[in-house]
Amino acid sequence: MRVLFSTIGATTHLHHQVPLAWALRAAGHEVCVASQPDIADDIVRSGLTAVRVGEALDPGQWDDVAPLPEEEVSAEGNIWTAQGGIAWDLFDLCELRPEKLTYDYMHCVLTAWATHGFRPNSSPRTVDDLVRFARQWRPDLVIWDPTTFAGAVAAMATGAAHARLMFGFDVIGRMRQSYRAALRERPPEHREDPFEEWLGPLLERYGCAFAEEAVVGQWTIDPVPASLRLDVDHVYVPMRYVPYNGHVTLPAWLRAPARRRRVCLTLGRSFRELLGGDRAPIAELLDAVSTLDVEVVATLNADQLAQVPRLPENVRAVDFVPLDALLPSCSAIVHHSGSGTTQTALAHGVPQVVVTAPMLDNLLKAQRVTESGAGLHIRDARELTADGLRDMLARVLEEPSFAARADALRREMAGAPTPREIIPALERLTEAHRR
């Protein structure tokens, strides 16, 4: 069969798709990966076929701002400030508390994300380009990043089966489930759905009617460990998370044993690529680790290093090192709660200290890691202090329970079916859903 992958133009999102794309390719299926021009070269370097669609990303489109006052929660027009940023603290897709999930709250959250969070990834030009290619190539299955709804539109416009491939927690599916239940309790004339208002006209352009599958797919491929997964009434295909870090050459120092306990410190790549900068103070991070008896490997580039007066003696700064190769030698990791970083740490059983940078499901991931006993977290990177971080890191290094729980999650993940092993299920589901 022909399988079309669709993702946002960020390398970290692409990396989540590559192992499954290659498993399908190795099984004899034809595979293409469609995305914005930003990552076309990365797709090609992964050995896959790239299809350019839409415009390049605007790195400043999701700049962060201070939260709104509580009394303004119900004012939809005030969700976004003049600077164009998200009031993360009040309009959070990760909200799970039933008392908070009122219709008004969920409507505001979904309106904000549909209008300003997801729409830029699926602009009219992106959708047109993707539909045009899909009509010419005729995929049997479209696998799409859960933030790139152009993939669902292209599938529905061509009759292909389609599924989301998660990179983190299904916060969209979870909130949609609660929101649709609240909608059913409202009079028909007051059932306004921001996703239908956005995606409905797009689908009509291609002769399709809106359906919930445009938001959550016909099914979902999920690499999150079952014990951490959200409770959503939806068809999930569990898949083992297989780390992919791009084409790399291992440095000589990584091939030698660490002389002391090794700690990885990383702020990932997504915030640099999508948001134009980090959301954690690098000087505080380095100050926190400087007095501990550990060897720290910090993935910091020249711009990040320019923000600190000096590098502590126990810190090795590298622009990039593949986490899949580094983490097996680490006793702990300090990171920003990015999906690839969190999942790779779980896959290798490494205890985590998460300095949460607010974005989509980052806080929820940090909370779930803490609740599982595999790490600790600071709720917001803006609250970071060197002393607080130092104490947390010392705990996860010294208290055996953190390593034990991290290893239990590693074993759980290792028990999930590999990308190759889920292909028969994908073939059956495609045959059942393809029109």
Automatic annotation (TrEMBL):
Domain Erythromycin biosynthesis protein CIII-like N-terminal per the UniProt entry, residue ranges: 22-268
Source lineage: Bacteria, Bacillati, Actinomycetota, Actinomycetes, Kitasatosporales
GO annotation, biological process: antibiotic biosynthetic process
Keywords: Antibiotic biosynthesis, Glycosyltransferase, Transferase
Membership in a protein family: Belongs to the glycosyltransferase 28 family.
GO MF term set: hexosyltransferase activity; UDP-glycosyltransferase activity
Residue ranges constituting the Erythromycin biosynthesis protein CIII-like C-terminal domain according to the UniProt record: 284-429
Recorded superkingdom: Bacteria
Protein name per UniProt: Glycosyl transferase family 28
